[in-house]
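Here's what a typical entry looks like (N-acetyltransferase domain-containing protein):
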Amino acid sequence: MISIPSSSLAPFSQREEMVDRTRSKILIREYNEDKDVKMVRKLERNSEIGTKKVVSIFTNMMGDPLSRIRFFPLHVMLVAELLESKELVGVIRGVIKNVGTLSGSLLKMGYILGLRVSPTYRRKGVALRLIAAVEEWMVRNGAEYAFLATEKDNDASKNLFTIKCNYVNLSSLVIFVQPISSLTKHISRDIKIEKVDIDLAISLYRRTLRTKDLYPLDMDVILKEKLSVGTWVSYYKREGLNLRSKVNNEEDLISNETSNSWVIFSIWNTCEAYKLPVRRSQQVRFLLTTLNHARERLFPCLKMSMSNSLCRSFGFLFLYGIYGQGENLGELMESMWRFTSRVGEGMGNCKVFITELGFGDPLANHVPQTDSISCIDDLWYTKRLSSHADENIDEILVRQVGNVFVDPRDF
């Protein structure tokens, strides 16, 4: 997710002059894992994530700046370096993956992840140069479109990408944050939650993903990653479900009446890979506003001490690949919620589990409504990079798509 702080505005002519001066003093180059890691850690610690009036949840990558993008065969990390002092004042990550669409089109899309700029070098053109550089890398590697996500409240980020970089809104989603400890772990005796092996999970997703507006083509790679805990199917015992471990015909994967209800889901474990610190604004004058906002949006959900939560990292589980079929999905979704909470309870410092659903996903209406759940609005943006891209595909991308697959590697 892209998160860019807002800042006070200098007069336009002054800003342009500062941008020109800064541009000549900065080199955009590829990240050097041997010599840059300490400086990138420092940069990201000092970078205030989110707007000054908002408490943001962001990813602490446990000392490995490349951890989020190592999952992708095609990835890059670029840094902005001051020519004189060699200080790093900005960083951006990019990956490329193949995705499918509801219409059957196949796209090569570049994803922008983790844009950070040092507080003293914001609004001086550093972010623009980093974005342009990562887009150039995407084009060189065959990407037809660029893509990114940011929180709805982050006006600075939205303005940067839409006004200055010509991105258009692709989709609106909701991130659901649920504390592990807030749910009872009881699951109805009428419901069975059955774990399926990877081969069967791949076959199931190969069929269900075709209902999504956008989805990755390498679902088998995702499911085989070590952070993927497993895949389960939840269904009513009275209806039954015939899951086969060896399947020749995909259409026979679930061989019972279509009116029966079932939900498939997978769990991604980030507790050892990276953490979620909650940080407050560096500006003292915004402290009260920030804490009040946190109290309203986050801490009632987490049921954690205010003083401790602002400085303590905690791990999380990510629910992904959620798909449901049938008429009675509400109780099945609730059982999935409780089951995930039970899994997280057995994992040391795992405090919350998270999922994200598009506004057009049918299951968004079946998310359990509990007092402890917290919702964060998310926006996806895209931009056409290739002049050779299919114009028919453009028609898909410039309209709002609502039922998308949220890749756990992107979160």
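DSSP finds eleven helices and 15 strands in the chain.

More examples are in the samples folder.
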